[in-house]
């Protein structure tokens, strides 16, 4: 195991910026050699946090485990700016290292650090709940990493609310590292599950993946349906929804009113919600990145929010 690095206590109070840069495209639609430039542009624009996982991008036939981590590791090695980046990764969803047993977490964590070329993470996530492993074993292993100064905070993703409550109870009972980050799918057009199951939890920083619904909320597929491919079936399903045409017209109406791209409105919407939640959004190049940063200056009115109802 690498020696302890500069991981500091982390949690809901730490600013993460207007959005977290999603690393699911790094080393894939953002080629590995272009990733350092994109991260530089992200930080220069005021970005703070980048989120990756050990299984990014295993779904690509030509990819390998840890492609996104390697791409970020190139930036860390070449920039000398590791301290400027709030970095998170995940364990448990990889086909190579599945599950949340103690041995698997420790091995996967070391491999992630090697690919990332760092000695700590600000946040380490259980990427997918593992009902086959005793939950106390999993939480105890993350606690070890925290106690060694290797991670700043613990997070969870893809976990049911009942299981999350069970984990929190074990943390309190055994004095373990609190779970202070939770990732869940959430967007203007996908609200019900999160608001029903998780919005009432306190002391947790929520991060919303699918915040742009794979590009549906950028408006580009509505304006040009020909862009939809076999790999974007979810977008096709959204476009076929009878609510879609009216919603997209309203989304563009609000965007025009504020003089920003539709994607910026989709991200600014999070700032008008009661929960402490920050969107995760991906960008393939600096032009897309610039569109996302417009969200910082947008304050949606009650009329805007009414128009954006799905």
Q: Strand content of the residues, in percent?
A: 5-15%
Quick one: CATH class? Alpha Beta
Shape: globular
Query: What name goes with the CATH superfamily?
Result: NADP-dependent oxidoreductase domain
Count of the separate structural domains: 1
Number of helices: 12
| Structural class label | alpha/beta
Order of helices and strands: EHEHEHEHEHEHEHHHHEHH
CATH architecture: Alpha-Beta Barrel
Summed up:
The protein is α/β, with parallel strands linked by helices. It has an 8-stranded parallel beta barrel.
What characteristics describe this protein?
alpha/beta; 38% helix; single chain; 8-stranded parallel beta barrel; 310 residues; TIM Barrel; 12 helices
Structural commentary:
With 310 residues, this protein is an alpha/beta fold. The chain has a single domain (20-220, 261-301), classed as TIM Barrel (Alpha-Beta Barrel), CATH 3.20.20. It has 12 helices and 8 strands. The protein has helices at 35-44, 67-79, 102-116, 135-147, 161-174, 192-197, 220-223, 233-240, 244-258, 262-268, 286-293, 302-307, and strands at residues 20-22, 49-51, 86-91, 121-126, 151-157, 179-185, 205-209, 277-281. Strands 1-2-3-4-5-6-7-8 form an 8-stranded parallel barrel. Helix 9 (244-258) packs across helix 10 (262-268). It is globular and about 50 Å long.
